[in-house]
Amino acid sequence: MRTGRPLLAVATLAVATTAAAYVFGPGAGESPAASRTKTAMAAPAAACKADARYPKRELRGVWIATTQNIDWPSKTGLSPAKQRAEYVKILDNAARRHLNAVFVQVRPASDALYKSSLEPWSQYLTGTAGKDPGWDPLPFLIDEAHKRGMEFHAWFNPYRASYGDSTAKLPAAHPARKHPGWVVKYGGRLYYNPGMPAVRRHVTKVITDVVSRYDVDGVHFDDYFYPYPVAGAKFDDSAAFKKHGKGKKLADWRRDNVNTLVAEVDKAVHDTKNHVKFGISPFGIWRNTSNDPSGSKTSGMSAYDSIYADARAWIKSGTVDYVLPQLYWPRGHRLADYTTLARWWAREVKGTDVQLYIGHGLYRVGAADDKAWRKPGELAAQVGVNRKLKQVDGSVYFSAKQLLSDPLGSVDRLAGSRYGRPALPPLMKERGGKAPAPPSGAKVSGGTLSWTPSGNARAYAVYRLPKSGKDCHTSDARDLVAVVSKPSYPAKGGTYLVTSLDRLYNESDAVEVKAG
Fold it and tell me: How far does the signal peptide extend, from start to end residue (predicted)?
């Protein structure tokens, strides 16, 4: 179980006197006398209150759905060059809005948007399941995110086997065709049976394969566990229940099956690479008070009862690093009020090491069936609710298609009012990491601030200090102007601070550079 909530690292700062570049904070190789001088000079900055409008650390992500070509690629059969261009356009738009994470669907339905020996190529690349697209997209997708200082979370659907209901129509090497006993036909689709240990082993193997071979920052599950109810249809897992149920009630057994997979994936991911995060985006309602007095005061579908997803169990057992509930309702909704749900989830993670991000329904903005979603400021207002709850560590938006189309100008409004400055992702102590050495050799030449790369630094944070007025330096993001992967930044005059960041965004002490 994870214990102890991560603390935010704040660099010790002072004012440089004679050097053009100066490292702030004791222990940077300076003399004891210099260290004492800097600490004393830094006291006013350390006492400065961080400005809540500019959080230093806040996850800001977007889901990029590949299933049915929702977001990327926009259609099947595009050339690799056009696929790359479309993805870059999405990331550039995300970076312009100061987002810092992408959640890219790499396994929509027991298929792969990467080179795999375990599952066939996804049909959403070429139009034909199993057809080689001529390149492996995943290294490119990851690298482009990292170039922009963004985390890359590989998004897997664990149980969906096919959008059709015939194993005979699947590629010959498809696991569901090779093991038809693993699947259940339901609602015109094929699903892997969560009650079968062989299914859990396969899903875990697929995920471990990706984590071991690719430089992902996270593994992500969406809200599909047992399938959403279909009127008049029965999910026939009776044979597996008879064999593995061990006297449990069916509903309890199904939840245990999901919980077991979650625990096994959590262990496999961290055993493979401890720094990789694992999280789940459950349906927004765990249970209603009508189902359970400890549930939320809502009246929607219960994930616990309908799809056997017990997010509370994952939180309590510590088998996830984060939960990202999909709160796709507006504030004031009659059946599922956004604020009520955000507060409920905040209480659930309180006192644990499981981080909480909120999933927002960007795709709902402008919807004709709900007047609340016809207000362009609804998303920005929801982030305002989040920031009043200290357990909420950020937001993720569904999905990238609307990030580009910006319905009602809501994305620009959100970015302008809430994301006026960049932010670093929250620290996650349990995943390790260590602040890199500060940058060295910092200088300004020809209008460019540059420095020598630092050891294990993944990226660098650049702050531009104001000419006058109260300043908190790196205690919040009011002076943060960029998070860059290359050791350079256009300098416009004034005084800059630069810090090194490792892959988990642990931050070094700061180096000061005057640009004239």
Answer: 1-21
Answer left, alpha or beta for residue 441, where phi above 0 means left and psi between -120 and 50 means alpha: left
Classify the C-alpha dihedral 367-373-375-381 as positive or negative.
negative
Rounded to whole angstroms, how far apart are CA atoms 329 and 381?
13
Tokens of residue 145, six digits? 């995110």
Nearest Cα to Cα of residue 288 among 300, 279, 272: 300
Task: Look up the CATH superfamily of 59-430.
Answer: Glycosidases (3.20.20.80)
Q: What is the pLDDT of residues 439-468, one digit of tens each?
A: 999 999 999 999 999 989 999 999 999 886
- What residue ranges do the domains of the chain occupy? 59-430, 433-515
Q: Which residues of 262-301 are buried (b: 16+ CB within 10 A; e: fewer)?
A: bbbbbebbbebbebbbbbbbbbbbbbbeeeeeebbebebb
CA–CA separation, 290 and 55 (whole Å): 37
The token pair that represents 429 in the structure block: 């102590």
For the CA atoms of 203, 209, 211, 214, the dihedral, rounded to the nearest 10 degrees, stands at -140
The highest-level CATH class for domain 433-515 is mainly beta
Which run of H or E residues covers position 513? strand 511-514
- The rounded distance, in Å, linking the Cα atoms of 309 and 339 is 22
- As a whole number of Å, the CA-based R_g of the chain is 24
- Residue 4: exposure state from Cβ atoms within 10 A (0-12, 13-18, ≥19): exposed
* pLDDT for res 39: 24
pTM over 0.90: yes
- Give the integer Cα–Cα distance in Å for 174 and 155: 19
Instruction: Mention every residue, 6+ apart, whose C-beta is less than 8 A from residue 75.
Output: 69
What distance in Å separates the CA atoms of residue 471 and residue 46, rounded to the nearest whole number? 10
Task: Tell me the pLDDT tens digit for each residue of 112-141.
Answer: 999 999 999 999 999 999 999 999 999 999
